[in-house]
Amino acid sequence: MDFFEYSPICAYVLIRYFCNKKFSPKERFAYIVSDLRFITQLWQSLKIAPPPFFGKKVSIYLLLIPKSPMDYFGKNTNANEEGFWALALRNPSGESIYQATFCFMPEKNLLIASIQGGGGRASAHREDEIRLLTKKCFGLRPSALLIEALKILTKVLKCNQTLGISSKLQIRSNRGLHKGYYADYDKTWQEAYGELVCIGRHCYYQLHHKHK
Fold first, then answer.
1. Where are the beta strands (DSSP E) in 41-170?
2. Do 188 and 143 meet the contact criterion of CB atoms below 8 Å apart?
3. Per the domain annotation, does 211 fall within a domain?
4. For residue 62, how far is the Cα from the chain centroid?
5. Residue 67 lies in a domain
6. Number of domains the chain contains
7. Within 13 A of 56's CA, how many CA atoms are on the CB side?
């Protein structure tokens, strides 16, 4: 089934942005094609028909604690320009606590295009959930947990590298700047011991699968 037929709202990324705001139209098109080709091959290898995959969230794991959040891999339902796919930590009610969006690059790398707390709910409630989750994970913050989970997913899907988008290339990092909010992606990847690598004319943070 054609991806854009199933989700026509995603088609705007063809003329706007896709994961990297510095992409030329030619680069953007190549990345979209590569991403959808990879996920199609994944469906075929798992013998999953596209419509159920689009419509369902696939549980990756459940923390072995009663009423703990689950990690889901599925279609990004927020800003598709930051990637069609998302790994989301959701509470038992299914609400997003934290999520990372990503795409599959032509070089068969997994590129994390955003990582952020779930929106649409009261800030105090969300912060309480984040604190509780961090405590349950022995001090590991949700963003760090998602990064580690995506490294594992990279290896499971037999991709080459896990990369993080830099602040300069991230599509929405400056969106809240006028309100005093700035998403410092460089700092996020540096805290995960990421190292800058250049692929073509763009530089990303390589997130090593083995800790030094």
1. 58-62, 70-75, 85-90, 96-104, 110-117, 162-164
2. yes
3. no
4. 18
5. yes
6. 1
7. 9
Q: In what order do the strands lie in the sheet with 96-104?
A: 58-62, 70-75, 85-90, 96-104, 110-117, 162-164, 202-206, 195-199
Q: State residue 98's pLDDT score.
A: 87
Rg (CA), the chain: 17
Q: Tell me the longest C-alpha to C-alpha distance in the chain.
A: 48
Q: What pLDDT, on the 0 to 100 scale, is given for residue 130? A: 79
H or E element, residue 156? helix 142-156
pLDDT (0 to 100) of residue 64: 40
**pLDDT one-digit tens code per residue, 60-117:** 444 444 455 556 778 888 889 999 999 988 877 777 888 999 999 999 999 999 998 8
pTM of the model: 0.84
| Cβ contacts of 121 within 8 Å, gap of 6 or more | 95
**112 in any annotated domain:** yes
Question: Do 116 and 98 contact (CB within 8 A), yes or no?
Answer: yes
Residue 58 C-alpha from the chain's centroid: 14
Residues, the chain: 212
Q: Domain for residue 212, yes or no?
A: no
Q: Check: CB of residue 78 under 8 Å from CB of residue 86.
A: yes
120-143 pLDDT tens trace: 555 567 778 778 777 877 778 889
The torsion angles phi and psi of 121, rounded to 5 degrees, stand at -130, 165
